[in-house]
Structure formats: C-alpha cells, structure tokens
Amino acid sequence: MSNQNLRRDEAAARSALITTHSYDVSLDVRQAADPMVAGYTSRSVINFSASEPGASTFLDFISSKVHSVFLNGKGLPVADVVDGSRIRLDNLQAENQVTVTGTALFSTSGEGMHRFFDPADGQCYLYTQYEPADARRVFANFEQPDLKAEFTFHVMAPSEWQVSSNGVEALRTQLTSDPATSRWDFAPTKPMSTYITTVLAGPYFKAEDTWHGTLSDGTVLDVPLALYCRASMAQSFDAAELFRLTRNGLDFFNELFDYPYPWGKYEQAFVPEYNLGAMENPGLVTFTESYVFTSRAADSQYQGRANTLLHEMAHMWFGDLVTMQWWDDLWLKESFADYMGTLGVDRTTDWGTAWVNFANNRKAWAYVQDQLPTTHPIVADIPDLEAAKQNFDGITYAKGASVLKQLVAYVGFEAFIAGSRQYFRDHAYGNTTLEDLLAALSAACGRDLATWARQWLQTSGISTLTSEIEEHDGVLATVSLHQHAEDPITGRQEPRPHRLRIGLYNPDAAGALVRTDSVETDVDGELTLVSQLAGKARPALLLVNDEDLSYAKVRLDPHSEATVRSSLGTISDPMARALCWTALWDSARDAVTPAARYVEAVQRFGAFEAGIGVLLNVLGNAGTAIERYVPAAGRNAVRSAFLDVAAAELEKAAPGSDHQLAWARTLAATSRFDAGRLDLAKGLLDGSTVIEGLSVDAELRWNLWHALAANGQADPAQLDAELARDNTASGKSGHATALAARPEPSVKDAAWDAAVHGTALSNQLLSATIAGFNTAPAGLLAGYVEPYFECLERVWADRSIEIASRIVRGLYPAGQDLTPDLPPEEHPVIVRTDKWLAEHTDAPRALRRIIIEQRSQLLRALTAQAAG
Q1: Do residues 314 and 336 touch, judged by C-beta distance below 8 A?
Q2: Is 312 a catalytic residue?
C-alpha cells in the first residue's frame, strides 16, 4: 500500500498550508463496456491558495499512469514529481492552479470507480464509492475531509447511458465526431469534501419525481428527485414507495432542522456489489442494490431499508453540510445519522417498532463491539486512513446513536434540536470538532456538557447493571442497582451516570405480563439504592432500563430471569420483550448461562414473537449459539431439537406470512450442518413438497442449495443448472457460495487459492466464496491454519484495504471447538494467534486490529463452550 496511508499529522500540515477553491474534473469512460480496457482518462484542474509562497505540498492520485502535471502553467517532469500515490508540488504561489491528467483504473473491489457487468444481459455499469479516501482512485485531489471545494464534473460516456453526479445536469452534448458518445456537463456544487463526490454511469433504469417543500419562512423548494437501478432489476423496483419515503423524509428533516435542503437535487441509486449499506453523496446517494427486493422480503427488511434511506438523508445536514475536520470525529456524522434514521422511521412512517428494532439490532451490535479489546471511545483516536477505514463500526454508529438518544432524554428533545439548528447555521459548508457541537448544544440546553462528553464520548467500554433485591412477605424492602463498568483495554473504569426507568411487570387477568408500575431513577456510581421501590409488591419481572433509555447491559435478578424463561412469550410490550431477549443473549454470550438455554428459549417463545425484526434476530442468534457456543459434545442434539421446532413452526405459520419466511430461512441455514435434515430442502427445490403460501424464490432456493452442497448432496452440474435458471448477480453469488461449500479437500483448496492468491474475484464474489469455504467442519479446514498466518502480511501489502480486510477477517480459523483438557486461552488457534501478534508488533495497526478482534470472538466462543 506504499504511501497511500495518509497520516493525520500530514493532513493537518497540508490544511494549514493550503485552501482549496474549486475542482474541474473530466472523466472519459466511453470504452468502459469493453472488458479488455482496464482504465479511463482522468483530468483534474484544481485551484487553491497557499499561505506560504514557495512552500511545497502534494496531491493524492492512485492511478495506472500519470501522463502530465502542470503547475501554474508550467509542465513538471512526471518522473520526478510522482511518488507512488502522491504528486509533489513545489514552489507554490499565493494562488495556484494545478492540472493533472492520467489513466485511472476501473475497480472490482467497490473502491473508486467500480465496474460491473450484469450477467443477466451483459450490460456494463459504473459507480463510484470513496469513503474514506478513494476519490484519489478516480481523479487527482487533496484527499482529506477538511479541504472542501466546489466541484464541477464532466463525463464522456456512451450516448444511450444514464450519467449523473452531485450537481444538476447543466448540458448534454452528443459529439458530432462520434455520435455514439455524449458529454455530460454538471453544474458546480456547493463546497464539499472529496470523499462525498460521486459519478454514476451506465444503462440504468431511471424514475423521476419532484419534492415540493415549504420552509418556515414561506419559501418554497422544488427539489428534483430521481431513482436508479440496473435495467434487469426494473421490474422489482418499487419506485413509488421509495419516492413516498423520500418526500416524507424531506418534509420531516427540512422542518426539524429549519435549514433548507442545501444540495439542489436529491437522487438515489441502487448499485451492484456495493461495500456499504449506502453512502451520503450530496445530490446522488448510493445504496446497495440488495434493497431492491427481487425475492420475497420480510416487513423488517422494508423497515430497515427505510431506516437506511432516512439515515443517508440526515447526512445531507450532519456530515455533508457540516463535516468533521478529521476522522477522529467520524461520530459527528454517523452517530447522528444513525439516531436520526431511527427517529425518521418513527416519525414519518407507519412502522411503530423503529426503536424496538434499534434496541434489538443496532444496539446489540454496539454491545458486541464495545466488549472487544479493540473498542474505542466514540470520539476516537484515528492516526491515519487505515485506522479510519476500520472505524466504521458498532461504536461509531450504534453506540454513538444510543448515547445521543440518552442525551436527548437528559437535555430534552427541543434543546437538542435547537442546538443542532444553531450548529448548522454556525458551520454551514465548514468542518467541525467535538467542541463545536458541544458549544451549540450547551448553549441550547443551558448546561455544561463537558463532563457528559468525557464520561460518554471520550471513554470506552460498557457498563453492566445488576439488581439486588431484598423482600419481606412479597413486599420489596430494598432494591439496589450495582454498576460494573469495565473497559476491555484499561480494565475497570469510572462508572457512568445513567438516567433510566425500572419497570414492574405482573400477569393481568388474561395471563399476559404487563407493566403495572415504573419509576425513573438516576444511577451514578457503583451502587445505587432505588428508594422509590421500597414498599411496593414484588413484581413477577423487574426490568432495569425499561423503555431502553440508557446504554448498558442488564442482568436479570434470579426471580425475574425465572419469569422470563417461563413466560417471555406473554410479555405484551414489544420493547420490554426485546430487552428481555437481549438480556438472555448477553447472558449466553458472556458464559453466565449455558448457550443451550438461549436456544431453548427461542424454541419455546420464538413463535410468540410478533415483531419480525426481533424474530429474525433471535433466530440468527440461536444459530450462532448452536454452532459456536454450545459444546461440541451436545451440539448435534441441540441442533436436532431446534430443527424439529423450526420444521413444526414452518408448517404452522400463516401461509404467506413473514413468520413463515423466517422459519424457512432458518431451517435452510441450520440444515447446512445436519445431513439428516435435507429431505425438505430437496422437496422444496424439486417441487415435490409444497407448503401453502411459501414462495420458493431465488434467494430461498440458493439457501437450500447451500445446505445441500455443504452436506455433499449437490454437484457442480446441479448448481450450474440453478445458475442458468437464475443468471443474475445474486445468483452468481449463491452459485459461488454453494460451489465452495462442498465438503471436498480439492474444493476447499480451489476456494482458498481463488481468495488468497487469485485476483479475479470481485468484492461480492470473494465474500461469497469465503462464506462457502467456511461452511465446513473444523477438521476439513485444519490444514489452512498455518497458511492463513503465513499469508497475512503479503495479502495486506498486495491487495486494496477493502479486499485485504475481507480476506483477513473472513478466513480467520474461527470455527473451532474446545480442546479437551485445555482451557480456552490455550486452544492451538488462540496460541498461534498470540504468537503471530507477538512476532508482528510492527504490522499495520488496522491489520492487527482485525486479528485481535477475531481472536477475541473465538475466545468468547470457546469460553461459552467451556461453560456449557
């Protein structure tokens, strides 16, 4: 990766020296549809000033070749000024213009200008993805978030294509010399960072609409809307619903933020092989095309898509209008967008479970991340771009959003929004740090938030709250809350303050567990006496952090845990039910209770879970518990019992319901590890088994083929025939996974070689191949442990950070079982990992982080097995 890893101090020095004004970028992709053409011509004209005439700086450009560099009209010797990904600029003037022309490369990794050939019709599609620093793969620039500028893009492409960028289309001209080619000229943008510029080009299907908004001062906004997807997916594209959500979101955020939408147009493109869920490029947001549901989707998937849509829309203000100065403050955009996305779903849609799904899914992600030895404060220490790439994690997104939710409860929603509005007005089109936001929020709420920020934003780790109860004759005498605060890095930490609610639940006349009382209390310190509860009748369930106001793990007291394990399905409130599911899962993950007991709870109460998002989550957790946390000796029995329940619930579920779909998917996924349970899979695939209402569509069919292949009951000819039936991008991924899942040494060798040594696999097919490779008993993969550790440094040095991260994370030998007579920390893979870490203390920080996290997850699994 040579000198691609820009350091924070280098970025700070550069921004102290120069101020960027404008970019004029021309890209010629007219030959993109020819797979033999590897690159395209890129030309950047950059105007900038320097505070120290005579000084030097550098541009960033990761290219195949730099053809020319002109600084202030003078041609520079390319061989002298180009060093890897950097172009040195010497003897700057007060005002400067630099022009760089080169050949940039098309990508198959999702970084830079990604090129995709649709297997359904052979059409070529292009899109760009840059965060945190891949705009330099497309055009020469100063690649850091605080060097904002106006951008004007020009694109040469086939005339029949759709082409778009951040700015509105100003002019489209068909070349007289080449009518098959047109030139698109886009209007200059408002000042923005390089990483949120974008270009889209290809034969995309396009739908158009307009949003009409009225601002608080009576001003009327007319914002053009557009949606894009691949032409072969157009029949599945529910554009009307997406436009409805978009208009509702623009209504909501324009009123909420009291700052008019600043980017002219609002387009959204759903693109193939996307590395992220979505990206907030102003004027042209890009999304993974998995949000175009070509197979049956559960209601929770539609809600998740709406959440992502509104998350990205919030970024138009948090992140795009006002941008963090450096990646240390990534949370300034991602935490806010995560919070605002859920708030938007709650306020602008018919879904009433937005915060329930947040608690059960997003927050659970944060809890997992915050217990890893690589956890970090929400305001993180990001010394370089590689570290930035790794910090798009559960802390920055979900923990940050959880803490903001708690802040709203602390200062009040109106004060929080008033502070946000002032923040936009004070820093529009600029860059900020934590101090800037705290100043605006403190002024709005009248409180000094410095202590709050130190306790919640600048520390890491998670608190665990445990209740201790003394009662006399069924009456509460004392209720104490114990807070154990632990930082995985530094050990115990100062306990954080929590404002939370404690719910008291008892059976009603119909036998449902309902909230009969609740109290609010402040928890501060290691021990808090909840005096408001003294004298109340002992409830069947005492639920700490009821309504999910704070960020903490909760341990149920013994009486409450017994109630939950016997009556979880009768809890009427969906949030309370979700919190109880989380408490049971945390107990299993932390090896406090055997993992099999969590699976038993899912078997007993999964069918009673009305929320499909929660159900899909707990079914996924059950699968993880069975294959990772249940001891090997008892795993087959636990899996078999779970499969019995899944099959029974599939038969009982209402025809065509989301619950039917959830149990079908679960049955397919769990059957990958049980060769005796494949008759149903075979019957569903060949049509001999029909379950009323169940659509055996492409996604479910590939899940079933994966199960058959993993058990040696699908050959390449059968899988090829299925691919011919579903010759789509998702079909190719399913095919790659199933092929690599076959339990044969030669198959695993081929998958390993394609992933580690080959370069032909795109990002999506690489992940699919790795998933298939890993669907195997540990014994079949034992021979790859040593090759894994031997290849790490080479993979990290030779591959892009996106591809290298997928290989390093995906091929870690995580599927291990406890070794008899050895404690978890002495398992051979743990020992080998520790040896590699000890011998490679100077390895790139981002690489070490992935290895450390994978080791921690394996150790957790082995510890759970030891407890089970």
Answers
A1: yes
A2: yes
